[in-house]
Amino acid sequence: xxAPTSELAFRVAWEAALDALxxxxxxxxxxxxxxxxxxxxxxxxxxxxxxxxxxxxxATRARxxxxxxxxxxxxLAEAAALSRSQLTAVRSMRxxxxxxxxxLDVPA
Length: 108
What we know:
The protein is mainly α and 108 residues long. It has two helices and no strands. The longest helix has 37 residues, at 59-95.
């Protein structure tokens, strides 16, 4: 994307970039809420090129978006770790062969 020539075009380009990033974060948040990460994993974010420095009036919005990104990233890492541990448990159950009950729950 070529560098914006006017101040308005510069701001509009940055707003569009933040809008796109906000949409990506919202999709990742929704995937975590619905437990559908594997079905539709979030795409790797690629920063836009040619925008220059963030306009000062968009800094608050950008900081809030960064906070959401970091929180989603943390939650995605936790979900991935949980999935790996569950997969390990399932694999170990499959390798045991025939199962034998350890105890029997009988009404008193």
